[in-house]
Design brief:
Elements: E1 7-12, H1 17-27, H2 38-44, E2 50-57, E3 60-70, E4 73-81, H3 90-104, E5 109-115, H4 120-126, E6 130-140, E7 146-155
Parallel strand pairs: 4-5
Antiparallel strand pairs: 1-2, 2-3, 3-4, 5-7, 6-7
């Protein structure tokens, strides 16, 4: 990321769905079946305990994180960064934002699922998430090929607020 860029995190909502879908189309390879549809996102966003965090470069959305909390368990449902911004620290910034939001909402444990082989696994490990399980054949690409999902977790006590 160039020093000329001032990346900010802010809350998002249904009004940001078009920007979220643009980032999702750019960052998720359709061969793996990981991306969500606009109806899936719009159906979840108004639900209690759900929040959307946007990463912006000025007025442009360059990434997002979608999270939810149920009782004391928070889940990072989606995280995406535009391809031209990947490996610039935006993903870690969004994970830190998710973690802080989850802690403020009372989370004691945080979870996420990621496709086995996704380069983001290393990022999640750096952020303190560790593999706790595997879901065989969880993701299905449009060609019918299937991929395992890794379940990762971390305790709130291992997180900085």
């Amino acid at each position: 990321m160039s020093k000329a860029h001032q990346i900010t995190l802010c809350d998002g909502g249904l009004a940001d769905l078009d920007s979220v879908m643009t980032v999702m189309r750019d960052s998720f390879n359709p061969a793996f079946g990981e991306a969500w549809t606009a109806p899936q996102c719009s159906g979840l966003l108004p639900m209690p305990g759900v929040w959307l965090t946007l990463a912006r470069d000025e007025d442009e959305v360059i990434g997002f994180a979608l999270g939810r909390i149920v009782i004391r368990e928070a889940e990072l449902l989606l995280l995406a960064v535009r391809n031209d911004w990947q490996r610039a620290g935006i993903g870690l910034l969004l994970i830190d934002g998710f973690t802080g939001n989850a802690l403020r909402r009372g989370a004691e444990r945080m979870h996420l699922e990621v496709r086995d082989g996704n380069h983001a696994v290393k990022l999640y490990n750096r952020a303190g998430f560790q593999e706790v399980g595997r879901r065989k054949n969880y993701y299905r690409g449009p060609d019918g090929k299937v991929y395992d999902a890794l379940t990762l977790s971390k305790d709130a006590k291992n997180s900085a607020a």
